Recover the amino acids of this structure.
């Protein structure tokens, strides 16, 4: 393995006493350059967003387009707050995402535990019914979802956007898999013999062990809720109840779309998540791909 | 003594019923919000209903399906959606595989930097990003047009543009032929990193002995890629492709934000999800909208079946 690696390492390109190996350098360039190019492509829109948030509307559509920060950030921010209760919208997004995460984790960890640890009548049937619904596209539910929410009187309420998703079939599947893999049944039995109640086992033994699984599902749920647009669009009708995506979109309808203000809003929607992500990218990536690799 | 036995009995009762206590909160929610809507949509799809709570639903048999299937707008949306799905899926997997392969190579440095950067688009809000891209694709003065106009001054690119019959500045989001490629670009931008990370995770499960053996046998890097890497990645590939097909056929946010609810010039960016949205929430035909949602479901079922089959058929060899 070591030998194998040393063969591929950069120093081997220029071997002492030999000619420079142009072919190897060429191959490496062919592999490196696209990667670097794509890195630039990936980062540029974020940079552009930040630059434009500091530019006035006429500057944004000037030629050549702005490449560096301007002085209009305060103006754009003022326009944003004039048109929308934007910090309220941010709060709505945060509140819905946090509640979605908490409720999903609660229902799915309880259910996942039930499916992973116990044998009971109808277990297979119930589990299979649930599994079958994972394959059903979210779009199928949007019409009944809206009708039900109106029937419950939940139009314009945040709970319409986090409660229905709490019973996530994908979530319970993920946690059941995780509990099956991480919690030995012998441990559960031992706790039972020691007189621990069933709920006590779940709270004090299982939950601490499955923290990484909970984190993975939590992140997926939070990001999903943060990005949710279509159901928020049909449920939220008043400016004061808008989440960030719906608020940003409401800017578009106006006669002169104020892109500078939109970019300030977009930065507020995007930058905090990126900051958190940069600090814990390794755990987050591991958590996010866990579900996919297992699935 | 007697109390103790009662206590034991109560305990035993709870122990036996415990699983139901654990799963019932989930299933109560699941029945109401997960299972019921599926059947309700089916029921609705056979009725005529304007969505007003007090007006009655009228049973009309398969008329909603018939109406949708004879609506030219449906076929246009279907065509757009399929083209968009194909145009956005293929590049993101080709690039994802390539980048995963490169990052996984021994000599590549700053692996974590590349992983983190490529993954960034996934954690951003699609609506916010769509708006950034709408400006990037702006006509005549978006950044992309600036880039193209500047590049055109170089003879090499002039030849390429002439050959492709492109004359920048281009109406990226304003001309029927460029709307879908532009939207695809944004989808590829968003998902390439996610696929790269998935494929990287898949690559790390391949035993190094396999590569060692290939090296001893004097295999070239592309032989290694096509003979070892790709076959070992098949399960991950199958999952990732199926996911992007399912996501692509339901695409809504990106076209809705970038070209508007009507799909832009000539409705070139009009997708099935937008057709469903307008039918239900703008025109008030809830029965037809439910029928559309079932047609989309069938479509997704067929396509994910095909993509699974295509990627599985070769599995028999390895």
């Amino acid at each position: 393995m070591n030998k194998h690696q040393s063969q591929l390492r950069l120093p081997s390109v220029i071997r002492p006493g030999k000619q420079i190996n142009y072919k190897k350098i060429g191959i490496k360039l062919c592999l490196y350059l696209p990667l670097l190019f794509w890195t630039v492509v990936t980062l540029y829109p974020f940079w552009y967003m930040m630059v434009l948030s500091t530019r006035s509307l006429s500057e944004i559509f000037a030629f050549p387009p702005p490449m560096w920060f301007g002085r209009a950030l305060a103006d754009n921010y003022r326009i944003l707050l004039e048109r929308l209760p934007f910090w309220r919208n941010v709060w709505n997004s945060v509140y819905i995402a946090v509640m979605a995460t908490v409720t999903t984790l609660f229902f799915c960890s309880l259910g996942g535990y039930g499916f992973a640890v116990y044998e009971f009548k109808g277990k297979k049937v119930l589990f299979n019914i649930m599994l079958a619904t994972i394959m059903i596209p979210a779009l199928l539910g949007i019409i009944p979802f809206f009708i039900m929410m109106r029937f419950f009187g939940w139009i314009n309420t945040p709970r319409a956007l986090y409660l229905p998703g709490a019973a996530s079939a994908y979530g319970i599947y993920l946690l059941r898999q995780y509990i099956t893999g991480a919690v030995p049944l012998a441990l559960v039995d031992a706790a039972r013999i020691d007189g621990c109640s069933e709920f006590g086992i779940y709270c004090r033994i299982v939950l601490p062990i499955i923290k990484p699984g909970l984190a993975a599902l939590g992140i997926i749920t939070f990001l999903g809720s943060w990005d949710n647009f279509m159901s928020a669009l049909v449920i939220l009708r008043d400016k004061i109840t808008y989440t960030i995506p719906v608020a940003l979109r409401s800017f578009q309808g106006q006669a002169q779309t104020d892109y500078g203000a939109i970019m300030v809003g977009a930065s507020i929607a995007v930058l905090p998540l990126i900051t958190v992500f940069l600090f814990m990218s390794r755990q987050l990536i591991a958590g996010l791909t866990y579900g996919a690799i297992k699935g | 003594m007697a109390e103790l036995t009662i206590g034991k009995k109560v305990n035993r009762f709870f122990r036996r019923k415990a699983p139901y206590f654990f799963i019932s909160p989930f299933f109560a929610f699941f029945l109401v919000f997960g299972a019921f809507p599926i059947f309700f949509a089916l029921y609705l799809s056979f009725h005529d209903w304007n969505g007003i709570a007090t007006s009655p639903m009228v049973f009309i048999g398969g008329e909603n399906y018939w109406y949708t299937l004879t609506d030219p707008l449906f076929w246009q949306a279907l065509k757009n959606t399929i083209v968009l799905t194909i145009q956005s899926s293929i590049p993101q997997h080709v690039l994802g595989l390539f980048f995963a392969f490169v990052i996984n190579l021994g000599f590549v440095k700053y692996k974590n930097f590349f992983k983190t950067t490529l993954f960034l688009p996934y954690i951003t809000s699609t609506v916010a990003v769509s708006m950034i891209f709408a400006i990037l694709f702006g006509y005549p003065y978006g950044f992309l047009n600036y880039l193209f106009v500047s590049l055109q001054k170089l003879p090499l690119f002039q030849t390429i543009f002439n050959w492709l019959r492109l004359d920048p500045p281009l109406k990226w989001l304003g001309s029927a032929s460029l709307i879908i490629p532009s939207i695809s670009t944004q989808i590829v931008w968003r998902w390439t990193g996610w696929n790269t990370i998935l494929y990287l995770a898949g690559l790390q499960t391949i035993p190094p002995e396999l590569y060692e053996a290939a090296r001893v046998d004097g295999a070239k890097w592309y032989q290694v890629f096509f003979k070892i890497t790709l076959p070992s990645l098949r399960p991950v590939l199958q999952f990732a492709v199926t996911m992007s097909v399912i996501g692509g056929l339901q695409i809504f946010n990106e076209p809705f934000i970038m070209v508007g609810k009507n799909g832009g010039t000539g409705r070139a960016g009009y997708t099935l999800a937008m057709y469903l949205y307008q039918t239900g929430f703008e025109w008030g035909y809830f029965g037809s909208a439910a029928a559309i949602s079932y047609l989309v479901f069938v479509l997704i079922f067929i396509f994910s079946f095909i993509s699974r089959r295509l990627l599985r058929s070769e599995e028999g060899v390895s």
Remarks:
- Residues 84-252 of chain A form a domain with the MetI-like fold fold (CATH 1.10.3720.10).
- Residues 97 and 222 of chain A are 5 Å apart (CA to CA).
